[in-house]
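Consortium newsletter contribution from the modelling node. Members have asked for a concrete example of what our holo predictions look like. Here is one, prepared for the 2-acetamido-2-deoxy-beta-D-glucopyranose complex that several groups have been discussing at recent meetings.
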Amino acid sequence: TIIVDRLGNGHFSTIQSAIDSVASYNKNWVYIYVMAGTYREKVKITSDKPFIVLKGEGQKNTFVEWHDHDSSAESPTFTTMADNVVVKSISFRNTYNNNRNANSMEAAVAAMIFGDRSYFYDVGFFGLQDTLWDGQGRHYFKSCTIQGAMDFIFGTGQSLYEDCTISAIGANLGPGIIGFITAQGRTNPNDANGFVFKHCNIVGNGTTYLGRPWRGYARVLFYDTKISNIIQPLGWQPWDFAGHEDHITFAEYGNSGPGSDTSKRVSWLKKLDSSTVSKLATTSFIDTEGWLNTLTQL
Ligand SMILES: *[C@@H]1O[C@H](CO)[C@@H](O)[C@H](O)[C@H]1NC(C)=O
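And here is the predicted structure:
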């Protein structure tokens, strides 16, 4: 167990120096506890550092902040490339556009996740455009908060988001600009990835679509989710794939709240039957091997 305390009362005063102290190709779980406070640094778990549990003192108590922008790959405040990673009770913010300021809006990623078998519990992600790059691998987000306005949950991850708060702050885009919550990147019809939101809560200001396809076979399901009145009646946009909407799987099932009315949605909204929905909206969508059992017990 490694303690990080920015005031100097731990083993390290920065999170990155604690991660750097873990041996490459480490095989045993290493706990890194980050005491409350705001850590102004970029943090990266490279692919040779698996089996790390990074744990703060609460989503509202331990913050990691940086302010890079422009390049999605270079801007993230937090990057994790390793398999088998657990992150708990901590928030990552890209301060370039969050809080809103005079900066023009640019891609400014708060977290980029490219490892397989990753579990996030009680984690906050704060940005405006491209907040959470759910890039690749199987991921479980439980009781997390994701805030942004433009394509702010994007990528090719195979992910279940359960009991999460989606904070869509479209009002920060300025008058007349409509946001997008998701931009999912599934590229081929047989790819296993997609974003499933289960039992989440969509709140915020301004107005937003639920998503648009970043790639041609994008797949997103909102299930049993409370949706506030900020959603555009059409719900979704085809972006570069107009004319090929039949390849896209955008679905809504069993949601509630004023934004959940699907009567004015795009005609190509996918109608999934309940057995397909129950296959997607369960942990077996991301785990048929039992890895999640191990990670959620750490
Ligand atoms: C939208 O909500 C966010 C989060 O609560 C807040 O910081 C922001 O000021 C709001 N924007 C406007 C224009 O009201």
